[in-house]
Design goal:
It is built from four helices and four strands. With 84 residues, it is of the alpha+beta class. α1 (13-24) runs parallel beside α3. The protein is globular. Residues 4-63 form the Glutaredoxin domain. Keywords: Cytoplasm, Disulfide bond, Electron transport, Redox-active center, Transport. InterPro entries: GLR_AS (IPR011767), Glutaredoxin (IPR002109), Glutaredoxin_subgr (IPR014025), GRX_bact (IPR011900), Thioredoxin-like_sf (IPR036249).
Length: 84
């Protein structure tokens, strides 16, 4: 199974939705809370300048935010990326 990292903030509803989708699929993920400015800068650099949360990475692939991941799931592309 691929390593999943998700950059979040505690009050972000899209972050909660993304984590819920991953949990429903039985996927373990590493959550990185970006309240620290250094972590937010790291996220922005990894996400090609995107500053919004969540930012989701599966293995070496930047999936994007929750809407991107949900669309990928609807197209049937999420499970193969996760290694399921």
């Amino acid at each position: 199974m691929a390593k999943v990292e998700i950059y979040t903030t505690p009050t972000c509803p899209y972050c909660h939705a993304a984590k819920s989708l991953l949990r429903d699929k039985g996927v373990d993920y590493q959550e990185i809370t970006v309240l620290d400015p250094d972590l937010r800068q790291q996220m922005t650099q990894r996400a090609n300048g995107r500053r919004t949360v969540p930012q989701i990475f599966i293995g070496d692939t930047h999936v994007g935010g929750y809407d991107d991941m949900a669309a990928l799931d609807r197209r049937g592309g999420l499970d193969p990326l996760l290694g399921q």
